Every structure is written in C-alpha cells, then in structure tokens.
Amino acid sequence: MAGVDFFRHGGLPVPQVTIQEAERIAASFFPGRTVRAQPLGSQQDSNFLLTEPAGAVAGVLKIANPAFSAAEIQAQDAAAELVAAAGLRAGTVRHGPVTVPVDGGPALARVLTYLPGGTLAGAGRYLSPRVVAGLGTVAGQVSRALRSFTHPGLDRVLQWDLRHAPRVVDTLAGHVGDEELRGRVTAAAAAAWSRVEPLAGQLPGQTVHGDVTDDNVVCRVARGLRTPDGVIDFGDLTSSWAVGELAVAITSVLRHAGAEPCSVLPAVRAFGELRPLSAAEAAALWPLVVLRAAVLVVSGEQQAALDDGNDYVTGALEHERNLFDRAMSVPADVMTGLILAELGLGGGPLPVPSGVVPDLGPNLGPNLGPNLEHCAVLDLSVQSDAVDEGAWLEPGLEDRLAAALLADGHDAVATRFGEARLTASTVLTGVSPATVATGIDLWLAARVEFPAQLTVSGDGTRVHVSLPAEGAPEVPPLVRPEYAAGWLSLVADPAPLLGLPAASPPATDDLLNRREASFAAVQEHYYRDPPRIERGWRHHLAATDGRVYLDMVNNVTVLGHGHPRVEAAVARQLRRLNTNSRFNYASVVEFSERLAGLLPEPLQVVFLVNSGSEAVDLALRLALVATGHRDVVAVREAYHGWTYASDAVSTSTADNPNALSTRPPWVHVVDAPNSYRGRYRGSESVRYSGDAVRAIGELAASGRPPAAFLAEPFYGNAGGMPLPDGYLAAVYAEVRRHGGLAIADEIQVGYGRLGHWFWGFEQQGVVPDVVMVAKAMGNGYPLGAVVTSRAIAARYRDAGYFFSSTGGSPVSSVAGLTVLDVIRDEGLQANAARVGGHLKGRLEELAVRHSLIGAVHGSGLYLGVEFVRDRGTLEPATEETAAICDRMLELGVIIQPTSDRMCVLKIKPPLCLDVAGADFFADALDRVLTEGW
Length: 933
Description:
The protein is of the alpha+beta class. It has 26 helices and 35 strands.
C-alpha cells in the first residue's frame, strides 16, 4: 500500500512543532519577509496561520503528519485544485511541498491559501437551517467535483473512512474510560453496522473529501450572515462510499447549540438536489451518522491519550460525547423514515394488514362493524370546536369529552390516527411538544377483546391501540411533529382492524402554493416557510401541527385572541340584526358616546369606518374641506395606510421603497424626530420641532398653508419611541397658526397600549383637532373611527355626505363596546404598564450584555429593540434582525422587524401578555443573541 494504514500505525499523534520552528519553516517560503506563526487546531497535522507585521495573512502553514506519503499529499493538493475549479473556495497550495524534520521523522510542509470568513466551527454556535443547507450544498458540490477523480495517493486506510468504522471502534474502544459510555458506543456501532452491511453492495464509491464538516467548511460573511462557500483540509481524502461525504457533514451539525437529529434535514435535501441519493444510500445514511459519532468518541479519547497537551483534541471530548448522545436520541428507523420522506423516496404510514377480523365482543361487535353510529370520533385538532376558549389547556379534557359522549349513549369514543392534538400541546416552550398520534385512543362502555396484531395499553376503560411494524422500536403514543413522518412510517392505522374508518391520508400542505395562485402576491406573509396558524388564544397562536407560539406582534387583537366576550357579543348581534348606520338602533349611539367620552374636549363627534386606512383617508378629507387648503405636512418613516390619500402621506420606505419619490405634490415631508439615529440625537432632539415649525412657516409663506399636520403621537413605525418633549405642542401651534388642523394617528398607539396613557397624544400634553383610531377597536373585527370637533365635522357637508356600509353597523358597534368593556374590566391598560415595564427592564438588561442591541425603545407594550452592527456608527443590523426573527420562531416566538432599516423588533403583543410570557420572550432572545442565528 502506497499510503498510510491507520491500523498498522495504531495512532497518528500531531507532529510537535514549536512556533519558532514554524516561523523558520515559513521563512523558507517567504525569503526576505517577516512572517509570524499562530497555532491552529488539528487532530493529526500541525497547522499555523502565517501573518505579516502589518496584519496581512500570508497563508496557512500545514506540516503533514509524517505518516503521510508524498503521493497522498499530491492527491490532496490535486483534489483541492479540482474542487476550486468547480467553483468552491478551497485551500489550494501556494508554496511547497518541502520536506522538513519533525519529531516523528521527515514530514511534508506547504503553505496553503488562506480563506477568509472563518469556518462553521464552534459547538456553542447555532447553525440556522439556511446555513445547514449551505453545508449540504458544499458537500454536494465537493462530491460532484471528485466523483471521477483518481490518484495513487488514494490508496490508504483511514480511521475516518466509514467502511472501516466497526474495526476502528473495536480497536479504540479501550481508550474510553467511562465503562457505561464505552458500552453504549460499542453497542450503537454494532447495531448501526448491522444496518449498513446488507446495503454495502448497493452503495456507490468514489473519491471523498472525508471531512466536509463545520471545522473545515469556510463561509462568506456578508451583512452579518455566514454563507458556506468553501472547504479546507483535504487530509482525509480517500476512496469510500459517496454517501459518506454527506454522513460526515451532517454529523458535525449535531455538535452545535440547539441542534437535534431533525436539524440535519436541510443539508440532506440540499445535498440530494446536487447529487441525488438512491433509496439504499438514504437507508444507510443515519446508521452511518451513528458510526461516525461512535468513531469520533473513541478516536477523541485515543488522541487525547496520545496528545495530552493538544487542547484542540481534549477540548472536543465533551462535544463529541454530546454529539453521540444526540445521534442516538432518535431511533435509526425513525430517522431513516424521516430522511426517505424528506427526499421523496418513501414515507407515510404502513398499510393495514388484510384478512384480520377483530373480535370485539358481544357488546361492541355490532356497533363497531359497518354500523358506526354508536362510535363517536373525538376531534382534538387545532380546528376542533371542543378546544375553544383555551379548553385545550385544561387537564383531563380528553377524558371529560369522551365521558360526555359515552353518557349520550355511544358505545365507544375513538381519536384519530396521525392527528396532531392541540390537547397534547402546551404554551411557552422552546421545543415543540409531542402532539402527533401514532395510534388511536378508545374509551369503551364495556371491555372487549382486541386482535393479536394490535398493541394495546390502558385500564380497560380508556385504551391506547397501535399497530407497529414487526421489529419496530417502541413507539410512543404521541410524537413531535418534526419526527412524525419517521414514526408514522413504522406504524399502521389500527382503526380498520376495529371496524372503524381509516384516517384520511395526510394531505400535502400546499396552502402556500394555493395562496400564491389566488391571492395577490403583494399581500405578503410572515416568514419564508411559515407555520399554518389556525387558532389563537390570549397571547398565543396555535399551528396545525399542535405547536403553540407566543404572539409578540398582533396589536390588532388588543384583548388577546379568541376572547369569549367579543365572540359572544358579535354572535348574539349577528343573530339579531346587522345592517347599516342609516337605521336607528342603540349600539351605534352607545359606542359613539363611549368613544367620544374617552377623548378630551372638543373631540365630541365620531365617524365610524372599517379600517385605519379609511380613517386616515377620511381625516385628510375633513382637513381639506374644513380649512380650504390643499397641502398636508407628514413625517418621514411613517406608515398610515393603503388608500390613495393615506398612502400619499405614508413615507416609510420599508412599506414602499419609492415612498419618498412618489409623493404627490400636495404632500410635504419633515424629518422623522428620531432621537436615536436621526439628524439630532439625545438632548439635541428638541431641535426637530424647530425644523418642522420652519418648514410649515416656509410652506405658508409660499402661498400654500397646510391643511393639516399628520403624525403618530408616539413614533411607531421606526420602532416605538416617544417624540421629543414639546414636539407636538410646537408643531400643532404652528400649523394652527396658519389655519391648519393637527391630526393624530392613534391607530397603533392608542387604546391603552402605552400603559401610562390611553392615547399617545397624552404623552405630549396636547389635544389634536382630529384623532384616527382603528386596529384595537374591534379586537380583530374591522372597525375604525375618526373623532373630531362638532365644528370640523359639520364642515364635511360642504363636500357632500358621508356613509360607510358597515362602518358603525350593529355588529361592529357591539364589538367596539365589548372591547372597551374588557379593557376596563380586565385592567389591560394597567397590565400594559406593569408587564411592559418589566419586559423593557429585561430587554435593557440584555442590551448590557449583547452589543448587537443598540437601543430599547417604547412604553408599555409598544416596544422596539433596535439592532446595530456598531454602536458608534449605528449601522443597522438588517439581515441579522431577519435571521433573529427566524430563530425566535424555532424557539416558539412570533416576532417581526420594523423601521425603514428593518432592524428593529416590533413588540406589540396583545395587552393580556403576562409576566411569564414577557420572560419567555426575553429568555428566548437572550438565547438567540448568545448562541447565534
């Protein structure tokens, strides 16, 4: 054999090379230049980063293990060139190789190209699905580049070649001092090999890099995000099974923060798109991961014994043990089913065995056969009426529902196979709970005998029935949605064996495709791959897979989702009457009186509409008619709506990239009074009002006095920050001096959201001429309002009449009255002040520890966390913010970015948010900022 044979050497300790020796070797490659050497970690070679005095990187000095022959080094360098030619960055040779003396004998040294950007290494760092997919893409690209590569230097036997994994584990297991761990590792390796060995003849071979892992995959870093785009260290190059390239890559994912077996699926999918896997390769993949994990454990223990001073090796021991535990945390059968389903190579529940007639006993036999009217099916899904009003959180709900059905005369009650049960879920959890049923539960009026093929557990009154495949691992009654496809591939629906109808096969969730086909694409949705949300309760949102998320953005449902008082009031009124406000009925009067009563004089007269956009449009029309002027002054970085007039005064480039360049000539814009990152900051922010006053004065002097100045009284779209003290008082006075009106957009900030004030303008100590309200008014029911003085309202007749078909309808008026009642009765404004204050304190504490947080804005439950890359330059961390939101979704929190720079978390949850929810949010954000995104 031309190359190294691990089993002949028995171990490959890293050649001991001092920094001084490395610098002397480097000097031979860079004559006349001063080069410094910095040690880099390695398990079998000696590596150094070479830098020049000014800091420029000269390359990476790699001193190969003396056991490696010249042919092996030549193969590695040729493979690196081939991979680079295929479009990946690769550590190709710049100088060398030359032979140098080291403690183990002569070794080959060369300088490789340094690839900036860093690797994916770091067990405490989180790898997003996007990055994991990038890892799979790199592995696939390497596999394609090397598929036809041959070289004499590939004739070698490496401990990392998964074909030799059982022998490596047997050889090195004695180095594992922990007897319990040693037993688990050897048993796992043997079990995994028993799965791989029968498939070995079907696994195609080729040249493999052998170490496309987080340590060796380098990244391009752009705008704060890493994208895998290269590979280094070809030292494990050999001929082996092609699928081993992917197995090695995805195993390395498991050492990262938050990773679990299902975390590798994006890499599997990405690899398969470039280099499709056969069914045999897919079936062998997870057993190969287990073998790799076992090899890493025993090899790490051996290497630590050989190189007790090698911090790189000893520091990795705990990570390798954790990696092994994660690889073993899900049965291989389950992961194989999951991988097959991911690749479209299989999946789905097993077929029900035919020809089996159940013995159901004399009491249930006639009823559970073709005649099913006496067996009730219990719907426990997210969309079931039985789980309304938070009932799914009540312990024992399933038993109570079944008991009620039995009491009604049913002989049995059955659940559905494969259903995701909301009753099995919980709130405020960073990991999805087990919700998907792998069998059915039966509540029986009498005991029965079940077919032998069924696995039955229970006390005879309630039993769990499942039909697992022969030899399958023990199947839990409920499994997590991420693994459901794998578990369900091991079981059949037992219902037909009991004379019950089979569950419908799981439908392909093509809802997004259907949405895109029929729903205008400009109506965007949150997240690239959003959960399907079909239920809300208080400050929680439930997806169809049973996962429940903390809702931190839904400011429309001010009371919380699914509030029973609103539902009851609206349903009752719909049964009685719903018409338009031209008819005479009490609710529109009562609601208008209540709303006007919440505002100071002279705001006495109410116009009711359907939305905030309509409210803004109407308010502008009022101003134009009442003043006779034709111009309006608006504030930069604000969103007010989508109708013609409300869009005209909307200046947010996040909502419309052309917002500032497409304003009609009657709209005039003043600077956003942003005291954090605007023209004037901190104590200087009082100057914003002077600039706005001058702009209004100049506009009037030009013969175009404004009809109105329109602004949110608490700066919302930029992230929820107060206006500078005295800002509105000065600007309102100036616009009124020229005959214009002061219009306050309270659509987001009103209704107690700020905690200390019911209306945002109260924080500024002013009274507007016109107030616009919406969003919170109906707790999700379409309702908006414009409130003004009697004199201004009367002027509207100069422009004709006003009418809204459903604005002020009996139902919308009742919804509005009920919302006001609940805000009062449940103390939601006070709750916003208390919980919001607690949450803001938690966020400010995070800002002390995480430099990405530039500022925490807001009041009550109208907060914003602004992310910056540099607290001096305030460079917005836009891409990081989007990635943080994606990571928060994984941890069970729905949050979204705002501001023209999209670098602020907009925190506007339902006002029923409690301290536990606030802490869950803060803890999740702390975890993301610590582990990465």
